[in-house]
Amino acid sequence: MTRILLLGGTGDALQIARQLGPEHVYSLAGLGKVPTDLACAVRVGGFGGPKGLADYLRAEGIGLLVDATHPYAAQISANAASACATAGIPCWRVRRSPWQPQADDDWRVVDDWAGIVAALASFHRPLFTLGREALTYLDEVPAHQFWIVRCLDAHAGSARARVMDARGPFTVDGEHRLFDEHRIDVVVSKNSGGKATEAKLKVARALGLPVVMLRRPTLAAVDREFDGPADLLGTLRSELP
Ligand code: NAP
Predict the structure, then answer these.
(1) What is the CATH number of the domain that holds 179?
(2) Per residue in 169-192, pLDDT tens?
(3) Burial code of 132-149, b = ≥16 C-beta within 10 A, e = fewer?
(4) Which pLDDT does position 240 carry in this prediction?
(5) How many Å apart are CA 27 and CA 212, to the nearest integer?
(6) Per-residue pLDDT for 241 more than 70?
(7) Structural domain of 132
(8) Within a domain: 182
(9) What is the mean pLDDT of residues 2-19?
(10) Is the bond into 169 cis (omega within 30 degrees of 0)?
């Protein structure tokens, strides 16, 4: 029996975790909800860098690490690749394909927060959908802007920003209402891929609004990559019955 450590914190990872038996371990950073209805073991919190993770892999007799963290969680993915090399076990990754711009899309692809700020300069009412990152900058909202920040955190906002705690999936109708109500003129997004948060892109396209898209980080090389949970679970069933 090969014991699996699944690194998660995404909907895809949870889907995989639901199929794992009690000998396997699902690991979460501890920022969001911790599921209590899984057959596999659940552990919460960091490992203490790549060395801590390598020590954990050895101590727990892990034979395969599956990294199903978010495509923008680059640190834990780097730690996973390095720790697996140290421990001498394979590192597999599950990553949703990125969204691709369509003919009517106006994407402005940027590399970092400075790029986001520059790309937003001529707009007034951006919708931020990056997660909690924008909360760090609420004191820096330019005088001509009012920000709508959607993330998983409850936050009072400020005179120049409204923070909405909301968890996907989001619908096209719901996003239309949100854009109308807040007179959104630009969307700020990660290229997360998948269906759950794609509606904002469809609405931006329909309304002719630009999307400031934060580029995906380049991740460390791994032994095998899978497009989604079904792809990975199929391989686990056939190769690790
Ligand atoms: P990160 O910057 O890549 O990782 C920061 C540190 O958090 C890691 O070095 C590790 O601590 C710990 N960590 C991260 N994921 C972990 C996991 N699954 N199990 C145990 N420890 C973990 O990660 P992040 O971008 O802050 O994301 C944190 C978590 O939220 C990830 O699990 C990710 O899947 C999820 N998430 C992230 C995003 C996003 O946009 N970044 C969006 C949705 C969900 P140690 O070094 O101490 O081991």
Answers:
(1) 3.40.50
(2) 999 999 999 999 999 999 999 999
(3) ebbbeebeebeeebbbbb
(4) 85
(5) 31
(6) no
(7) 107-214
(8) yes
(9) 96
(10) yes
> For residue 86, is it within any domain?
yes
Please say if the pLDDT value at position 153 is more than 90.
no
Which residues lie with the beta carbon below 6 Å from any ligand 1 atom? Answer: 7-10, 27-29, 31, 46-49, 52-53, 69-70, 72-76, 79, 131, 190
In this prediction, residue 70 carries a pLDDT of 95
- If you average pLDDT over residues 33-57, what whole number do you get? 97
User: What is the reported pTM?
Assistant: 0.93
Q: How far is the CA of 134 from the centre of ligand 1 (A)?
A: 17
Q: For a pocket test of ligand 1, which of 76, 129, 191, 215 has the largest count of ligand atoms closer than 8 A to its C-beta?
A: 76
42: CATH: 3.40.50.720
Residue 30 gets the label, from left (phi > 0), alpha (psi -120 to 50) or beta, of left
Residue 88: what residue type?
A: G
